[in-house]
Request: fold
Amino acid sequence: MSYTKLELQPLFDKIDELKPAFIERLSKAVAIPSVSGDESLRPKVVDMAHFLVKELTSLGFEDIQVKELGIQPPPVENPKLELPPVVLARLGNDKSKKTVLVYGHYDVQPALKEDGWATDPFTLVHDSVKDILFGRGSTDDKGPVMGWLNVVEAHNELKWELPVNLVCCFEGMEESGSVGLDKLIAQEAEAYFKGVDTVCISDNYWLGTTKPVLTYGLRGCNYYQVSIKGPGADLHSGIFGGIIAEPMTDLIKVLSQLVDGQGRILIPGIAEMIAPLTDKENALYDDIDFSVEELNAASGSKTSLYSEKQDILKHRWRYPSLSVHGIEGAFSGGGAKTVIPSKVIGKFSIRTVPDIESNKLDELVIDFVNKKFAELNSPNVIKAELIHDGAYWVSNPFNDAFTAAAKATEDVWGVKPDFTREGGSIPITVTFEQSLGTDVLLLPMGRGDDGAHSINEKLDVSNYINGCKTLGGYLHYYGRG
Ligand SMILES: [Zn+2]
Reply:
């Protein structure tokens, strides 16, 4: 223990005491099937927003606002479909305190019993033998959202003042692309969110199942497509094979030159943009609880390109990767169809990392693809383009917010957290950082095996309850630090 411990035991005891009420709160939330991706369930998503308003009101939150985001843009079946609102609330407006914005989402992924769930997905089931809560949204993200409310309830019961001003931003469209949220955050940056000192997002997971983590980085993603067009219609290889230039042959030649079998990107100029690995960052990888066996278990194979955990983690988190995803227009069924596709579109993406400049990357990629195609001397027509991009994010794991969360984690779990990054994206992280000009901390509650988007999603009771303590402890260490 290398820090001055705050006297938080009464808070932790109170959270333990309130465990049944906290499970009850989560069970009411899980019972509302707030699936944002299912238009027919949109009224339930709205019900969930109102459930939150009710809870926030009873806990004493002030200035609760239900921000309507308007009509959902196409593609939609119902052209008049309203987006679910963003719920804003605050507790405390004391100029002498720091202000923490907490973000969470109250919508969930779709779930049907027939998908293979052992229990009804929208009934929170407490397996008392394993001490695990099963239900859609238990870990993603209703557990963490209820966690923030639980922290406030524990303070109210203790008649403790919160150590910070708390601002909540809960959205209902996260599982469907957070439509409308960027605009709202930009609008509120100098209004509702004025004075926010830091942002905490609890919407990710531990790397494994035993050791708590704090997450300080996410890779971005630039997604490209290359279309190659030749004949006016699909042709028969018995008639045209050998006498015309085939788009698929050209496309495969181009795609095959983007990356090698060892995962090395072959496009010149990208490696030079990657931020150098500092000794301090390098040292973070040594302590992380991870092994090649865990990767094998997750991939269901023994196909790892690396055998050392440090190499695996660095290549998942801090180096770029290029994946070829598919070919639109290609024959992909069973059997032996002898078609020559007239137009094929190859799809690939690059997971981006600091300090890759997105525009520069697009230029390097598109120029490279065009150059490789030109070398084929093909009469076909190529078009390479970016179809979607999302920025990477990396924070300073030694800043005040991370330090506060690390102390709280150590108080609660008795171990120092691992500092991790993730290979995927949480685009809202970058939006908050850029719009509010503040740091963002990712403070997960659940474990790596919670099955956030799959069947039998769960949250261990210990993660739920200790997660509440960690969220509360973080507010104290941050607010009083
Ligand atoms: Zn989530």
